[in-house]
Amino acid sequence: MKSDDRIGGPVGDGKGARALCTSLSLHTVTRRRPFIYLSFVLGALLLIPATLLIMDPSHAQAPKEVSFESYNFPGRYIRHRDSLGYVEKLQDRLAKKDATFRIVPGLAGKCRSFESVNYPNHFLRHQNFRLKLAQRSNDQLFLEDATFCFVPGLADATWYSFESVNLPGHYIRQKNFELWLERNDGGKPFKEDATFRTAAPGGGVRID
Fold first, then answer.
1. Cα(first)–Cα(last) distance of the chain, in Å?
2. Which residue, 31, 113, 117, 176, is most buried by CB atoms nearer than 10 A?
3. Confidence (pLDDT) at 79
4. Which residues, 6 or more positions from 203, have their beta carbon under 8 angstroms from its beta carbon?
5. What is the CATH number of domain 65-204?
6. DSSP output for the chain
């Protein structure tokens, strides 16, 4: 039986054909390898921004309506009452509504703002360092006073702290159950007072 020099095996024994197929497959894979590698790299690069957005609380997609529970006083939630901010237990339906906010894009053009659910177009803002609920105004001072960046919690990075846009280094904190904007002094009490976590609207508290 004669040999076929082109494929290096006896004609009709099947080995030459298999060798040819293997050679062609390796050639195809070798040619496609740079393309596959490039596709992998491009896919990874596209995932990086999305991953960063998820890891960065200031860009995280927050629920449309949410409440915020105090870190060091469990069962107490951020709420407005008589147009002022407090951290209180929610003991009736009104309190639950007062403690529910829509987290919307920041009025100052970045970060986030807290819009009241039961008083639409009213936002939490700081004024003379006290947290208040006020009707939206389009003056720049109001827009900045009502904008806060969600950052990893000062006392627990899995929770949140809320840093003022126009007073960097100042955070919403509870003090004697009132909400104030104060500079972070680095102490443990401050960090705990300025840390909150998201909860179901109205704190998920059942009112019979």
1. 95
2. 113
3. 98
4. 67, 69, 75, 77, 90, 96, 99
5. 2.80.10.50
6. --EETTTTEETTSSHHHHHHHHHHHHHHHHHHHHHHHHHHHHHHHHHHHHHHHHH-TTTS---SEEEEEESSSTT-EEEEETTEEEEE---SHHHHHHT-EEEEE-TTSSSEEEEESSSTTEEEEEETTEEEEEE---SHHHHHHT-EEEEE-SS-TTSEEEEESSSTTEEEEEETTEEEEEE--S-HHHHHHT-EEEESGGGG----
| pLDDT computed for residue 99 by the predictor | 98
Walking along the chain (208 residues) 10 residues at a time, the average pLDDT comes out as 40 46 46 47 40 40 81 98 97 96 97 97 98 97 98 98 98 98 98 97 77
Q: How far is CA 104 from CA 55, 99, 122, in A?
A: 19, 16, 12
Q: Which residues pair with 78 in a beta bridge?
A: 87
Look up residue 109 and give its amino acid.
Answer: G
Which pair of tokens denotes residue 16? Answer: 């030459």
Question: How confident is the model over 13-61, as pLDDT tens digits?
Answer: 454 545 444 444 444 444 545 444 445 434 444 443 333 333 344 444 5
CA angle 91, 92, 97 (to 5 degrees): 110
Q: What length does the chain have?
A: 208
